[in-house]
Amino acid sequence: MVVLNGGSSSGKSSLTRELQPLLPGTWLRFSVDTLIDACPPQLLSQGGLDIAANGSIDVGEAFTRIEQCWMAGLAAMARDRRPPSHRRRLPQRAGRPRSLG
């Protein structure tokens, strides 16, 4: 796992795109933008992640909970170094997925 931290438009995504073909094995890129793009619209408002017109950001409890789960999932993938073909498949469950809220 490689973690890059920096301000907006500082070149983190460009750097990771350049590194991917140079590094051995398979490397995936994730950013906070990946998480935000995956969020339902209601989570990107009051109580979630409220981005005001002036650029200020209010991070609420609902978004923080989702972000913690997302980071735990990324950490679990980073710890699991087995090839995908050797990973245990989870049984498929009928019905609706469980809500995190």
Could you give the topology of this structure?
Layout: H1 12-19, H2 32-38, E1 49-51, E2 57-59, H3 61-79
Antiparallel strand pairs: 1-2
Strand residue percentage: 5-15%
- Average pLDDT score: 82
Largest sheet: 2 strands, antiparallel
Describe the strand arrangement of the main beta sheet, using strand numbers. Answer: 1-2
Oligomer: single chain
Let me know the number of strands. 2
- Low-pLDDT windows of residues: none
The level of helicity is 25-40%
End-to-end separation: 29 Å
User: What does the radius of gyration come to?
Assistant: 17 Å
Order of SSEs: HHEEH
Structure characterization notes:
The radius of gyration is 17 Å and the shape is flat. The chain contains three helices and two strands; from the N terminus they run ααββα. With 101 residues, it is mainly alpha-helical. It has a domain at 31-80. The protein starts with 11 loop residues before the first helix and ends in a 22-residue tail after the last helix. The chain has a two-stranded antiparallel sheet. Helices cover 34% and strands 6% of the residues.
